[in-house]
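Re-run requested by the PI after the first attempt was lost when the workstation crashed. Everything re-entered from the original request form. Ligand of interest: zinc ion.
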Amino acid sequence: MPREKEPGMDIEEAKGRLRLEEIDAEASKCTKCTAARKSTGDDTAYCDEHLRKIYGI
Ligand SMILES: [Zn+2]
């Protein structure tokens, strides 16, 4: 059986997931994210600061 995935891809995926989890934990304590979630009614909304962190800008 040939391997479909490069091992490096898994590491990058894991890093991305870990970063999201960290940002999510921060965002749940962030008053700006809480405000954004209330105003949009979307409980996956983030403030500008955390959006930038998610996109790695
Ligand atoms: Zn935030």
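Saved to the shared folder this time. The chain has a mean pLDDT of 89.
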